[in-house]
Amino acid sequence: MSELSRRLCELIPDCRPRGVEGGGEEICRVAIACGSGGSLLSAGARAGCDLFLTGESTFHSCLEAQALGLSLLLIGHFASERFSMDHLAKILAEAHVDVQTWASRLEKDPIVILH
């Protein structure tokens, strides 16, 4: 899980990984839910995933993942959604060349790490 976490941090700005290790060494199947997708953990487990990747989750969903032996990787709510806005803006700009389209350049993760 740490290798995947490292790679995601290279690809996704503002990625702040935290997680629950499920106990399995190998990750073959990953379920993904953007934003606050922890409530979908049981659906990922039913689908046979080894890792559930989402932005954030409740503490109780983390305990559920641990009990199920399922790895849970939380990369931050903002980080799990922001890149899609850039992609959507590009698609809209290409489809509507007469309309000036862009993703916000000012939006940033409102959550900061305090030490």
Write the layout of secondary structure elements.
Elements: H1 2-11, E1 18-20, E2 30-33, H2 41-46, E3 51-54, H3 59-68, E4 71-74, H4 77-95
Parallel strand pairs: 2-3, 3-4
Antiparallel strand pairs: 1-4
How would you describe the overall organization of this protein?
- Strands 1-4-3-2 form a four-stranded mixed β-sheet.
- It is elongated, with a radius of gyration of 16 Å.
- The chain is built from four helices and four strands.
- By secondary structure, it is α/β, with parallel strands linked by helices.
Order of helices and strands: HEEHEHEH
Individual helix count: 4
Report the β-strand fraction as a percent range.
5-15%
Give the terminus-to-terminus CA distance: 25 Å
Task: Summarize this structure briefly.
Helices cover 39% and strands 13% of the residues.
Relevant terms:
13% strand; 115 residues; alpha/beta; 4-stranded mixed β-sheet; single chain; 4 strands
